[in-house]
Structures
1.
Amino acid sequence: MICESADLIRIAKKRNAGEDFDPKLHDDSDTVVDRLISIIVHEKIQLEKDKRMDQLDREESERQKKASKKFMESE
């Protein structure tokens, strides 16, 4: 959402990852924009990783509860 509202997605699509800013080629970008895109992408990846880890933790907790319940029922 932040990237979209700042038009950074359109700018990022015009640039290759790690490509140096060239005012002849990239009239709407500069090193500040590059840094912002990098930070936003990094944060988005971290949020997705955290979300996935939370999901895996919940799934593992559910598996442990089921295993414990099954064990208790077998006694």
2.
Amino acid sequence: MIQHRVPIAVGVGAVVLTPIILPLLKPVAKATIKTGVSLLEKTKGALAETVEVFGDIVAEAKAEVAAETQHKSNLKAGAYSQQELNTNKSATP
């Protein structure tokens, strides 16, 4: 019989104490939520900045790769031109 009284007492206590405790906890809950929202906004800003910086780094890397590729192409074209000049010189009497 005692085993059944404990859950009933807890239930009655919760019903009686909830209207008293809830107004006391509301400011704490509100402050916690405000802090969470503030942290979320700061995190969004930091994440946006990180994405922008990473995007800039990727763009720089792509530009460097394109410049290196162009430089290699120019060197090959110059080598072929020089080779053609040498061939033309030896073919001319």
3.
Amino acid sequence: MISKLILFSNFLVFVVSDGYICQGGTLVNPPLDLTEPFYFPENWNEGLPPATFNASQYCNWRINMLEGMYATVTFYKDADGADSSATQIFVDYPNGDNVYLQDNDDAPYIFTKQQFQISLIAHEKQGKFSFKVVWSEYPAEMCKINIPLDQYQLIPQASTNCAVTFTAPNKVWLIAFNGLFNQASSFLRHSAVFEGGSVNGNFLGTLDKANGLNIWSNGKSLTVYTFGMQMQDNRYVFLGMDANAAGGNVQRFDGLDCTDTPPESCYVYAYSYDVGNKAVITASRNIDYLYYVRRLAENATLSVYEGQIDKDHLLTTISGTNYNQKLPLAVKNTVKIYKVDTMLTQVSLTNDSERAGYGKIAVLTGTGMQTVVHSFDYRQLSLEQDTFETFTADILVNFKFNVVSFDVNGNTTLDIEIYQNGLTVLSETFTKDYKPRSSGYTAFGDKISVKYQTYGRATKGFEVDFACTSKDATTPQPTTPKTTAIPKTTVIQSTVSTPVITTEKIITTTKGSSQNYALICFLAEVLYLLN
């Protein structure tokens, strides 16, 4: 029979004129009726301000749970005042992890079997502290999601009422995403991670820990349970991967989600030193735009991966010497990974193409611009590959592009057009019967558009690499666009597609020399027409 039991070992609680006093520790067991919460102090409840405690004392509570139970605990603390060292109040999880409690943070904590502890160390100042414990049983019929991993996959998961079990060939590596700006800790701590395939395994930590330090299973599987926590927009909350999927040279990941973050505060921060390294992962159906380098050493290289961490999924590398040519950059796929090889990097990230200045070509004399245009789920069979992107320049530039990959299913088309002063100077429509040449294409203009259409069929997408410079250019005559007959097909709109990029924001220009150059080209064209 379970009974409510409070054992006092040199423990005394009483109220004096200036607060309560406690010496020693107490053990608290769950009650027979789980609807009855435990309050401390006993004559306090959540409708009252937290109770005052006296200075110069130590209190400890050890709170038990039985198999199949968990506890939801709400703390009410106002004890830091002007000197946060005056009082220390912290909790110890069943695995030994401890967390210091913050003032005025009443978001609940979750604790699992067998026992957790609450400690209060008061120094020379008084403070206010109370708490409430509610015991609950896990659902009798708990739904289960099993996710098998191979040695390369990185699989994200949204919040769910089910227990989620990852199983890997070696060990499971778990990363969580800080989905709420300044509230990530309180949100992610409403969770528990267990060793093995159920909630009966040993407690490994919370998703809050998985975000900052990551969690590894001891065996080949672990289970995540979020106690009914639901995230808006079905965004991803955590991600599982095999322990070897990072290639052996990453010690931990930061899970980054800037959905609720002020734009100026969102950036990729990765480092690599002898004493440790950290890479960054994002997971969403949004496009990441990298657009401004805050810190990056000349000898450092930031590698950008899509989907997996291997050379086949490497989108590009950004260094301290080429970032002017590479940024802004659109990074796609559900999972994006950012890893630096030495020292550290800090690069601004946004999901807003206009803020990034994406689609506007800013050519620096002697350097040019290089970019990669591809479908969102490139390399994966998907119905969501349709893409339409446009890039414009304020001056005439020399475009050089190469079609790296072009997957076709039925009537799939890839249209690439280059314009000069509103007139088409190059137009190519690639189909299953007309494939792009390997030597690439070159044209002189001020705008390029890339359009990939699948007409509702699944493909593995496409990739087009192009570069543009303002030197060594010749002025061709505008030509009539070439057309290719396309069979009539009902177009099925995809639920998610790559957005049309039409931004006009300029990142960097060198207008003095560029305008003179454009004028010379214009006069040359006039003389050509007069002849």
4.
Amino acid sequence: PAAAPTPAATPAADPAAAPTTEPAAVDFAPGASEPVAPPAESAPITPAQTAEPAPATETNTTPSHPDNMPAPSEPIPAMPSSGQ
């Protein structure tokens, strides 16, 4: 019975702390999420584009496996791991 009232008191303190944590987390979350989101998207795009130009060179050597050769050429550890 004593445990029941204890949890009930916890939620009461939660709302009080929520307002203080909400503004701080909201200001920090959006601010850090915004700058982090753009760079994060740009990073994945860079490696993806790098693989495209690379295939062009490999395509010359392997026109039959232009998608298979260039792709594995970049992510060698990722490709072999997936194949195995």
